[in-house]
Amino acid sequence: MPVEEGLPSRFQVETPLKPQARENRLRLLVYWAVARSATGRRGRLVERTELRTERLLLRPFAFADVDDVVRYASDEQWSRYWVAAPAGPYTRRDGEEFIARAILDSWETRPQFAIVLGGTVIGGTGLNIDRESRIGELGYAVARSHWGEGIAPEAARAVIDWAFLAYGLEKVFARADARNVQSHRVMEKLGMRREALLRQHRMHGGERTDEVWYGLLRREWKERAP
After folding, report:
1. Are 125 and 139 in contact (CB under 8 A)?
2. How many C-alpha atoms does 157 have within 13 Å on its Cβ side?
3. CA–CA dist 26, 32 (Å, integer)
4. What's the CA gap between 118 and 226, in Å, rounded?
5. What's the pLDDT tens digit per position in 151-202?
6. 3-state secondary structure 5-33
7. What count of other Cβ atoms lies within 10 Å of the Cβ of residue 184?
8. Whether CATH 3.40.630.30 fits 46-224
9. I need a surface site. Which of 128, 218, 220, 223 has the fewest CB within 10 A?
């Protein structure tokens, strides 16, 4: 296991940990990150928030979400177009590391929401924020058992509305594998316009694939807002 850059020595571990010890260590990492943010080393600490839609609760990820995340992320069909998918099966450790990153990430630049339906986490959505350019890259993922139910656009729309106001963004954009037609439809339902086709732009499964980009400007968002 690599040593985390910049961590106090008491948190650095180079040998594998037992599950309980690993979870305890992740909690320590979170407390350390929050404390460091509060001192101003990473800028002001943005308050994490919850959003609600007609059917969904969108909230920050928590350690207790690991089982739900592993359940949907280990579905090979679900991860077919996921560039960051691990080379092998998605394991509990992968889920733990995902949750840790989601908790540790500063909401100044990377707010991440768990999508909760009926008390179960069925996906996630969030943004990578470029504060200087005032743009945000949207991402979303929903468990395959809930595909076709309009979950992704419902969740992403709430996050977009919140982000335009909370961050004063001028644009939100998203991208997807050119073969992932379902994701294209989600972006179109969000009012985004297709802006580019980037040929042979990324590696996935050992082959080069095309990527499409969609964008939504602030004025376009305001025009469609009720």
Report:
1. yes
2. 19
3. 10
4. 27
5. 999 999 999 999 999 999 999 999 998 888 899 999 999 999 999 999 987 8
6. CCCCHHHCCCCCCCHHHHHHHHHHHHHHH
7. 18
8. yes
9. 223
